[in-house]
Amino acid sequence: MSTDNTLPIEHLRWDAASARGPRELNADATAAVTDPGAGRWAFAVADGVGDNPAAAAAARTAADAAVGAATSDPRGAIMVAREALADAPDTGDCVLVVAVGGAGDRCEIAWVGDCRAYLWAEGTLRQVTEDHTLAAYFRARNLPVAPGMEHVVTTSVRTAAAELIGTADVPLPAGRLLLCSDGVHKTLPTARLRTILERAADPGGAVTDLVDTAHRLGGQDNATALVVDRTAEHTANSSAA
């Protein structure tokens, strides 16, 4: 497997950026693996629960374990990440989103907690994931939501059973896939997310702008973004195969 962020065999490009912000340390993590021989790839963003070394270690351990196992099954990859945390007693807990794809124009996503995945294509931004938070739980039942509920997750890597893991199977045509921690999506309005993803010339520009803008607008959390571009050339080649 490779972590090269230029993949001519699949016509994918990706990049990631992460910034500590006003926190004591950065407890977010990203990870990526590609298997050109098998035509598969996997990306992950994890967000440690807390602002301490154990949280940071949990995010790094979970992200690495997930992408190492995710080239076939993102739900299973999160369970592998759970096992990795169980085997590392000095780590804390984290939330996680994993995206897996291949030579076709589909992408499988799994998540726990409030890391998110967005798909931008043809001028439209779509939120693929649904937050596993107390606020989302109350909102779905038309109950009053207190501000603090937005930051209380109802699933995490250490605690989620397989049936609690969120999953989605989405098209990934020529366009952009964004994975991010809540330090990005809870600070930037949807319109700003869409504008940045639409205007950035490449994944590197997109992730840098997302993270910098989140903190410039007053974000108080770590901010992490990973963007994957699939080019029209790949789509055309796939259709002709």
From TrEMBL:
It comes from Gandjariella thermophila. Residues 13-230 form the PPM-type phosphatase domain. PROSITE patterns: PPM_2 (PS51746). This is Serine/threonine protein phosphatase. Gene3D superfamilies: PPM-type phosphatase domain.
